[in-house]
Amino acid sequence: MPEEIEHRFKCSICGKEFKHKVANVAERMARECEEFHEIVYLPILRSDLSHLVQFIYTGEAKLIDSRLINLLRKYSRLEGRR
User: Fold this and answer.
1) In terms of C-beta density within 10 A (0-12 exposed, 13-18 middle, 19 or more buried), how is residue 4 classed?
2) Residue 82: is its pLDDT beyond 80?
3) SS3 readout for 4-69
4) Do 35 and 28 meet the contact criterion of CB atoms below 8 Å apart?
5) Could you tell me if 1 and 8 are in contact, meaning their C-beta atoms sit under 8 angstroms apart?
6) CA spacing 20 to 30 A to 16: which of 27, 33, 66, 72?
7) Which of 38, 44, 46, 51 is nearest to 70 (CA)?
8) Does the structure show a pLDDT above 70 at 79?
């Protein structure tokens, strides 16, 4: 009877591959890696994202309004919380 050699799963955040003979073990390792990254999703408007990227490139403070600053501050205070 053929033997399973390895199953591969990749972390969708960093791209690291996890290999294991048992599929659900490899999948669990990849999921744990994704959770380790502590991704924060922000409810941000596309226009605000565009302004934020432009600010990063140019340094023009007028691109960032107080609403966006407050949103960023709110989510930065969530650091370490789950």
Assistant:
1) exposed
2) no
3) CCCEEEECCCCCCEEEECCHHHHHHHHHHHHHHCCCCCCCCCHHHHHHHHHHHHHCCHHHCCHHHH
4) no
5) no
6) 72
7) 44
8) no
Q: Which residues pair with 18 in a beta bridge?
A: 9
Q: How confident is the model at residue 78 (pLDDT cuts 50, 70, 90)?
A: low
User: Which of the two residues, 2 and 30, has the higher pLDDT score?
Assistant: 30
Expressed as residue numbers, the domain containing 16 is: 7-36
Does the pLDDT of residue 81 top 70, yes or no? no
Q: Is residue 82 domain-resident? A: no
